[in-house]
Prior knowledge:
The chain is an all-alpha fold. The protein has helices at 2-8, 14-30, 33-44, 48-75, 78-101, 107-131, 141-170, 172-191, 200-207, 213-225, 228-258, 262-285, 291-298, 303-311, 315-343, 349-361, 364-378, 380-399, 402-405. Mean pLDDT is 82; it is low at 1-5 and 411-415.
Amino acid sequence: MSTTVDRLGPLRSAPFRWLLAARTTSILGNAVAPIALAFAVLDLTGSAADLGLVVAARSVANVAVLLFGGVVADRLPRDVVLVGTSGAAAVTQGVVAALVLTGSASIPTLVVLSVLNGAVAAVSLPAAAALVPDTVPAPMLRPANAMLRLGLNGGSILGASAGASLVALVGPGWGLAVDAAGFAVAGLLFARMRLPRTGAAAADADSGTSRSIMSDLQEGWREFASRRWVWIVVVQFAVLNAAFVGATAVLGPVVADASFGRAAWGVVVAALSVGLAVGAGIALRWRPRHALGIGVALMVAAAVPVLALALTPSVVALVVAFAAAGVAIEVFSIAWDQSLQTNVPRDVLARVYSYDAVGSVVAVPVGEALVGPLAHTVGTVPTLLGCAALIVLATVAAAATRSVRHVTVEESAGS
Length: 415
């Protein structure tokens, strides 16, 4: 009985309920967007290289603005930041949808709008990551994070499945319109949170001083760089994300179009979210002392769906492979969040998250931009096999590092 009460405790907080509703709503629409955008570009030019250029443009902007987003998240009320970014995302995605629906879209226009959308997402990401402690008391953080992850995973499953069907039946433009509507509704829900003013801005107002953005960035960098296990894992994910995202986001739709079809690709993508939900359940019940080291090693499973795309591109094989990767990703992600929250002081946590995000995705645009031309040059299958090899090598190197294997959540903050 007490366990049930503990797990449902976060729902007693009104700000958390609005946060849960807002993030679940936004992911419902946002799960449709990558599928819809991919097939919109393929319908426009039929080129994997063009698709890589469009998705890479978003990633470049995202990386360029992330550090600034971390400073903003520590300086301004995070709910206000999320209201603004949700509204901006609704506008940019709405314009993309209108262009696709009216047949006015072009690759240069989609690149520009992808840049704007990536910049908006970069401002919202650190705010969302650091917002949970502002909505629930400390003892409720674990069940609160679990509820958020289940909401995000459930929204991804429903959004990807329904979105793929929508794209297949009525076209990618309507899928992008659903994404825009989801962001608009999420903005209204974030506005209901009405959290008190927190972060660096509140501290500066109380003391009568103003800190520079550069000093905030330098402080965040010191906290990030002083922990060897943090930057080693981030380097691992720089390689892993570039290979995995490039293979699945760019070459995945190409393989789907050439084999089992667009509607089934949505089911494959949704399988990843099913795996994430299963992984969250496993991680909440299985709490090894060295959870981070185990989670890092399990990321070798991210190579499995890439190998399946190359060697056995059937719906059944890909669903199993993507689900297995999802389990590993979520077990790692929960261990990673818990390790950061336990070992990094809360007043710089958003900035450390922003450095983590930048480092983890800095190579993604390179992967997205290169896999298309590389597939044209050497073939899709050799390119996918190369991506899988990179994932395995990066994971083995990180998992073999002593500082990663020995991290525990019992270490004191600021260590």
